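Following up on my earlier thread - several people asked me to post the actual chain instead of describing it. Fair enough. Here it is, all 362 residues.
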Amino acid sequence: MKSKNKILDIANSIFTIAVLLVYLLVLYLPFLHPNLLPHLNFIGIATFPILIILIITIVINICNRNILLSILTVAMLLIGFPNWRNTFVINIADDPEPADDNKIQLNLLSYNLYGFAYTEDSADSILSLVTRGNFDIVCFQEYHDIRLESGKRISSSLDSIYPYSHFGYGLRNHGIALFTRFPIVKKPCDNYGANIYNSFFTDLLVNGDTIRIINNHLESTHLNAEERAITAKLTDDIDDSIYNTTYGLLKHLATSAIDRAPQADSVASLIARTTYPIIIMGDFNDIPQSYTYHRIISAGDRNLRDAYAAAGKWFYYWTYNDHHFYLPIDHIIVSDDFKILDAHVEYVKFSDHNPISTTVQL
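Reply from S.P.:
Thanks for posting it. Predicted structure:
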């Protein structure tokens, strides 16, 4: 019996150490350039199941009265809290930061539109959402079908609401747009960094203060229909085509992560040299457990904060909602010049993304 217990103890120790090593890798990946371990960049997507396994490991070690491993595993869980709290939001207070009636509030929206083509009613639904939201600054991505009647109707309608706008086209002709109620004092026509998929900045005059908005649509994974449907395929019989599709999926994830790295560096460089209050919005095509997100939110000495992590209400949120992938890849990040009052993700099927919004105070 003692021999059997000893074997179980050894197996438990090996299992615990293996779980901790994987967890450490998840924590370290945002600091690691994608070129170094390209095929491991997808591991961040598995943060939630890894956290569940880590908690189960804690319970097992407590039940087995393995005090040392229990303390070590709990310590690792707590050490990693700053890393994963931007994905798994824990905000108990209804009003994280009370508003100051003497300061101006800004309602912000970021939304990848899928070119108004997700459904037949997408254009009208998107316009209705923007209108009833009473937003002050709206950033769109995949706003590249304005030549279509739906796009023309959207632009015409938004022009009647927002007197100021800024449009840009990056690589692969993916358009982005900004609409605002505030005067634009600067809007460069060209991309500001090398290898930018699509990103521009716009300087606005808000009650006498200049603020900078950076609207981003960073490198996509460019998955084909077969690869996007991989999660559905895995519920069917396993065959060679699924293995090949899985390999293609991992290859796309690795390549796109490498392509996004210099784009994130360019955005971070712009943030670091900006002296105005700054808001970074858009489709990063990456989760908080990634080099892209970490490089941008830690740029310079601006003390940037994720709006949803600061004021969101749900434990787990997602902004990409297609083919069984539910991932937080759209973000709104603000400098500490702003007080974050609220943040929401609206789960609607007008695009393959969900709109994300926040209310801040300057």
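The longest helix spans residues 240-272. That should answer part of your original question.
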